[in-house]
Each structure stands twice: as structure tokens, then as C-alpha cells.
Amino acid sequence: MSEPLRVQEEAYEGTPLRSLDRTGTHVLTAICFLAGLFHIVSLLIYPIDPTILRSTHLALACVVVFILFKPARKVSNRVAWYDILLAFVSVLPAYYISVNLSEYVGRYGVAPTDWDVLWGFVLMLTTMEITRRTSGWALPIIALCFLAYAFLGPYMPAELWHKGYSFERVITYMFSSDGIYSTALSVSATYVIMFVMFGSFLERSGGMKFFIDFSYSLTGRRRGGPAKVALIASGCMGTISGTSVGNVATVGAFTIPLMKRVGYSPQFSAAVEAAASTGGQIMPPVMGAAAFMMADFTGISYSNIALAAAIPAILYYVAVYFMIDLEALRLGLIPKKDEEIPALWGVLKSGLHLMIPIAVLVYSLVVLKNSPLMAGALGMLSAMVLSWFSRDKERRLGIKNVYLAIANAFKGLVNIAATCATAGIVVGVFALTGLGAKISDFLINAAFGNIYLLLFYAMIVCIILGLGLPTVASYAIAASTVGPALINLGIDPLPAHLFLIYYSSLSVITPPIAVSAFAAAAIAGSEPQRTGWQACKLSLTAFLVPFMFVFGEELLFQGNWLGILWAFVTACVGVYMLAAAIVGYLRTKANALIRLLCLASSILMMMVGFVYDVLGIMIMILVLWMNSRKKTAVPNNPSVA
Predict the structure, then answer these.
(1) C-alpha to C-alpha distance for 193 and 406, rounded to whole angstroms
(2) Has residue 640 got a pLDDT over 50?
(3) What's the whole-model pTM score?
(4) At 222, is the secondary structure helix, strand, or coil?
(5) CB-based burial label for 370 (10 Å; 0-12, 13-18, 19+)
């Protein structure tokens, strides 16, 4: 078991990872494996009390973080005595809960003891510290601000006033299933861990290489091929990993140099990878942690959420694909014959078995209506069995590879666990003080009851929250504040919460703190802020998709099949016309009039109603006729500006 855990520092926004020595690597791998094994047993074989599961889940994540992450960038790689002490102390609240659970459940937040307060305070400190190490300062600072609000309620303005709460009540309320151990952490400890393990099993058996080779063979010889390879490969891997920054760090290490090699600028190459990886958080069947949290918040089954999210996710990738294609056409990037591009049949022949676990997962979720836990378990089992059909013996999931797959899965989960736990503090303050209802009423009044204006406010809130927070934390806060306002104005919970997830995901490529774009820029050697704006430009059409599915239920697979098909086709045409308006190119360079007509056509086809679609199609036909009369011209300079 000598192979070390795979780590990518670009996947984390906090302090750097330690470079452990051989002994340290073995110890950390063993801890991560035992932590993963604990979850498999407690979720699938011998169920335990949910609060004990959540507290143990967080305690194990704390131990891994204090060993793996430095407390500061300039600190030595050696694991210091205080990290060992913190790792030990972080386990004690979970032990205290397991020993005193029956008594504690009846008294927290009402008649707490001194020991309750002590271990609750220790838990809050260690939770915010591991969040700081894995995700930076933003979320801990926000959590501290909300905690201050819980104490300072009597001094707040009338709109935010509440009676205030004692130190003991606030601390012990957070030390419960209403605070740190709330729904957010439950999602991490159950659904997310199972699907991360599924992704780890699939990757260990050669999944990432297969998806890259498959994408390369499919689009490598097409116009703008390498960028399309990045789009498809990142989409395939992103839907399994559910994290955009981590996906940039893994897939981007291959695709970004490939794009640069054929003539794309470092900035454009990084932007394509960032945009492509971001879509993985909203792409079924796995999606990201926020989708599992949505299932718990709304009571809607995960299979229904995944089905409803399918068309919007496809539209996201269609929109980015059109932007890449038209940009390549504008720049005259002519497809090249590359002997290194693998043959499609050869790729499918050697790796088609890797698609079967995903098919098993989807069939289990959508057709058999199994729980996400059972679907994830069946996917893992099928990946393990089918790996033995691989010609590469190193890709077969024997004892060693299963050991490393489980260990890598838990190691990759610790930042999600930390984020969910600290987000629980924010959600707990909302529940304790009634702040969520106050903000909901404020937003409705600020929008004057206008649903379009409220949706615009919701978009801004999600993007601002996401500038410094991981997607799961951004969604958790938005769901507690903006979600009730959207529902109170008549939007169904399914489109309302998908709307919030969509913009919480897009925030990671939105400057000034576009974390996915910054990670891609680090690999490409480009300027981070310009890369972020370029990624936004590539994804601009996708920023309108949530407004489309809020008012068009067919895009969420609701209604008759003919209506769903018509809505999907016209939406695809609409995003194409918008891409043409943004890039300013169809077969030839588009003048100002053609770009305006493209914009008008796209807006009409994105609006709900058959008449709008027909008008949009008529304008599109006019645009294509006007463009066809112009002489096709290919730029002499194929490089990306």
C-alpha cells in the first residue's frame, strides 16, 4: 500500500497541503481508509444514530485536515505538536455526544450544562479552523458575523431586531442537529460520501483517462477541437466529482496544455476549462453536494431533482459549446489531422465497460427509484466488478486499489465536510433568530412583489455569496434567505431551488473572486482576473438559462413530451443565436445590425410562448439569409487574442 494519496493544491482555496514523508503518508492513508470504511459500514450494513454519524463524520474530517493542511503557508511541512493536539481535541465533542446522546438531546439550547457549553465551544472553534484551512477565511468570517447577530439582536434596527440569546444557549444550539450537525452536514456524511466513493472507484479503474480519450477521439479533429475536448471531458468528470475547482486541477492539467499547443491563448484555454468544469456541479446523474442538500431542504426526491436538472445542464454545455465553436470559426482555427488522436472505436473497445457503472447508477436512481445511497453502492459494486475486464492490470480494483480508492474518496471529501459544518452555523442562526423570514419579507418588499425583479435579486445574492464561498455554502445560505421569498411569490420549490443552485455554481467563475478561473489560470500561466472575465463571457448564455426554466416547466421535464421537445429545441437555437450575438460571428463577421437581430431572436426564443418562438425563428431565418449573402472570409491570424 505504498502509493500516496493523490492531492492537488489547486483544488483547495485555503492553506497549502503538506508534503508528508513516507511514514506520514502511510498513516494518513490508513486514517482515510478507516474513515471511509466506517461510512460504508454505518450507511449500508449497520446503521447508527444520525447525530452520532454526523459528529463522527466531522471528527474524522478534522483529524485528516489537521494532519494534511498547514495552518499557514509559510509553516513547515512537519506536523506540529499543536496539530496533533487539535486533531485529538476535535474528536472529543463526538465522543461526548455518543456517550450522552439521550440526555443531551432533551436539554441543548434550553438547560445546558457546563460540559455541553465547553464541548460545543471546542466544536465551533475546530470546525471554523478546518474550514479556514480548506476554504479560506470567507466562510468562517461570515459565520462569526451571524453568531454576533445572535447575541446583538436587541441592539439591531427594527427590521432585524430580536430579543437576543445567552452565550450558553447559542453555543449549545450550534452544538446540535439544528446547528453544526444539521442537514448540511448530514448530506456530506451520507449522500456525498457515497457518490464521492463511486467517483473514486471509477477514476481508479481508469475513468478519467477514458473520458479524456473519448472526448479527444470525438472532437479532436473538429474546429476548435482541443477546447471541445476540455468541455466534454470536464463535463463527464465533473458530474462524478461534483466540484469545479478539483475538476480544473485534474482534467485541466491535460486539456489546458493541449489547447495552448494548437494556438489558443493561455487566457482562453484556462477560461474554457473553468467554464467546462463548473457545469459538472449541475450535471446529472451525480451533480454536486448542493443537489443532495436541496433534496433534504425541499423533500423532493433526488431522482426527480436529477431528472429536472438534465435539460438546463445540457443547455449550459450547449451554450458553451456554441461559444467555443463560433470563436474558433472567427479565429480561423482550422481542424488539423493529428496522428496522436485515438480512434473512437478503439477507445470504446478498450473502455466502454467504464460507462456501465454510470448507467447502473442512473438506472437505479431514475427507473428503480432506489435511494441515492443504494444507487451509489450499486455503482461502486459494478465499477469494482467491471474493472476486471480492463486490459491494464493496474486498473483492476483488487485489494490495493480498493484500499486507495476508499482512502482518496474520504481525503477528497474533507473540504466539503468542513464547509457543510460551518454552513450549519449560519443556518442555525437563521433558525434560532428568525432572520430568514425577515430577509425574505425584505426582498419581497424591495421587489415590490414583482417576480422578475425578485429573481434578479436572487441571482445577485447567489453570485455575491459565491464570490467567497464554496457552492454548497452559498446555496445553503441562499436557500434559507431567498428561497422562501421565491416560493412565497408563487414559484414552485423545484425551479426555485434549482435556480439558486445554478447561480451558486456559476459564481465560481464570476470575478472578482472566480476560484475556478483562478485555479485554471494557475495551470495556464494566465492573468487570473482576465481569465475570470473570459470564462464569464463563454458562459454568458448560461446565465439566462435559469430564467428560462423558471417560467418554462417543460425545460424541467414537466408536461407532455411534444412540449418538452419543442422547448428544448427552441432553447438550443436561442442560445446559439445569443452566442452569435456575443462572438459577433456566424459564417462571416457579423455587423452591428446582424448582432442586434441575433440578440432579438435569442431573447424571443428564450421566452415562454409559441408566438415568441415563431417570431424568433423568423428573425433567425432573416439573419441567416443576410449572412449568407456576405462572402465567407477566414482570418489570416489564427491565434487567439
Answers:
(1) 10
(2) no
(3) 0.84
(4) coil
(5) middle
DSSP string, 360-410: HHHIIIIIS---HHHHHHHHHHHHHHHGGG-S-GGGS--HHHHHHHHHHHH
3-state helix, strand, coil in the chain (%, to 5): 75, 0, 25
Query: Distance from first CA to last CA of the chain, Å, rounded?
Result: 48
Q: Is the pLDDT of residue 421 over 90?
A: yes
Grid cell of 546 as nine digits: 435559469
* Least confident among 38-42, 213-217, 332-336, 594-598: 332-336
Q: Which of 270, 272, 271, 302 is nearest to 287 (CA)?
A: 302
Phi-psi map region of 164: left, alpha, beta (phi>0 left; psi -120 to 50 alpha): left
Q: Answer yes or no: is pLDDT of 128 > 70.
A: yes
The span from the CA of 483 to the CA of 247, in Å, is 28
Residue 266: asked if its preceding bond is cis (omega within 30°), the reply is no
| The C-alpha cell that represents 597 in the structure block | 437581430
Q: Cα–Cα–Cα angle for 401, 404, 409, nearest 5°?
A: 125
Three cell numbers at 27?
A: 498513516
pLDDT in tens, 425-454: 998 998 899 888 888 888 888 888 889 899
Contact yes or no for 524/535 (Cβ under 8 A): no
Average pLDDT, the chain: 85
Q: With 80 as the cut, is the pLDDT of residue 332 above it? A: no
Q: Do the Cβ atoms of 422 and 473 come closer than 8 Å?
A: yes
**Phi, psi angles (nearest 5°) of residue 484:** -60, -35
pLDDT higher than 50, residue 409: yes
Which has the closest alpha carbon to 211: 347, 116, 402, 86?
Answer: 347
CA–CA distance from 144 to each of 128, 139, 150 (Å)?
Answer: 9, 9, 10
The torsion angles phi and psi of 420, rounded to 5 degrees, stand at -65, -40
Cell numbers 476508499 correspond to 406
Instruction: State yes or no: pLDDT of 1 exceeds 50.
Output: no
Residue 340: enclosing H or E segment and its boundaries?
none
